[in-house]
Amino acid sequence: MNWRPLIPNGLTSMNLIMGVCSIMFSMKGDLFWAATCILLALVADGLDGRAARALGVSGELGKELDSLCDLVSFGVAPGVLAHQFVLIDYGWVGWFVPLLFAVCGCFRLARFNVMASEVHGYFMGVAIPAGACFMATSTLLMLGMGYDPHNLGYIYPIVMSIVALLKVSTIHYPDFKGADSEGLCGPAKAYFAVVFAAVVYIGRDALIPAVLFAFFAAYEFVGIVNTIFGGCRK
Known about the structure:
Layout: H1 6-28, H2 31-55, H3 60-85, H4 91-114, E1 122-124, H5 128-145, H6 155-167, E2 172-174, H7 186-202, H8 207-233
Antiparallel strand pairs: 1-2
Helix pairs in contact: 1-2, 1-3, 2-3, 2-5, 3-4, 3-5, 4-6, 5-8, 7-8
């Protein structure tokens, strides 16, 4: 029996398990663990590919399994989390935005699989795990600070909708995968540093969630800045 595929496939399955656990925690109202499970799914998602390559068992089955699990953990689970956290009080908007988030995630994954041989050195659109972790870490930060997200009014669903649409955009985002990865221009690096520092300062009373959210908040829109100023520079 070839046991080697069991390790990466087990990690991929753990991604799915964490996504389902997140949904169940959301339905119970335990939003801290719902958000935490999404981050744990990210860890499993980051390890499965590395394990497959290290063991020499990368294959099409693993890639398809990974996409199916990602849709649950990073497409559906964040939408359910946002709905139970805030959007449940927003009527039809509270239904539409999580559905948009999941559908855009589905299209993002399908496009990634189809264009895997054509896109190198960058992500076309925000990667679906990054969008999910933006929602999860923002939840953890507001919970840690005791901040009522309803104070944001319609800013919350608007920002979530923008994050959803960025996933299916053609904006380039750095993938940080070796020397071939597209870099950030100077203004984009400055933007990233300023946003990161500002979020950490504002959320310093809940430092760990603030640091996590600061990274994903800065990354979420850095592709736009890099495209604008990188294009102007060229």
